[in-house]
Amino acid sequence: QVQLVESGGGLVQAGGSLRLSCVASGSFFSTRAAGWYRQAPGKEREWVSGITTFGSTGYADSVKGRFTISRDSAKNTVYLQMNSLKPEDTAVYYCNSGGWSTKPGNIWGQGTQVTVSS
User: Fold this and answer.
1) Using one digit for the tens of pLDDT, what is the confidence trace for 69-95?
2) How far apart are CA 42 and CA 77, in angstroms?
3) What is the Cα–Cα distance from 113 to 90, expressed in whole angstroms?
């Protein structure tokens, strides 16, 4: 059973940066797309960003130009660099694999909390 483990969340002031990491057990990300989703209190989970096995990337309009997704296949890790954070970015961020945008895959991490203070 593949496991995804996120880390890197925390509390940051508006305008600050955080980098999230998602480590997969085994060489999983080399054969599947990976992505990040987030869920704020009282809201549905939404897609944030994704990266394909070929390295193509996609972003939600709300984070375009501020967030960057990347992958290190040698480390079985996907990253989400988040810059110019806003209070509305506050959410639990989840790593996902095997899906894209509105059709996530069935493998999820446990989530990491990101809180942006104003």
Assistant:
1) 999 988 999 999 999 999 999 999 999
2) 30
3) 8
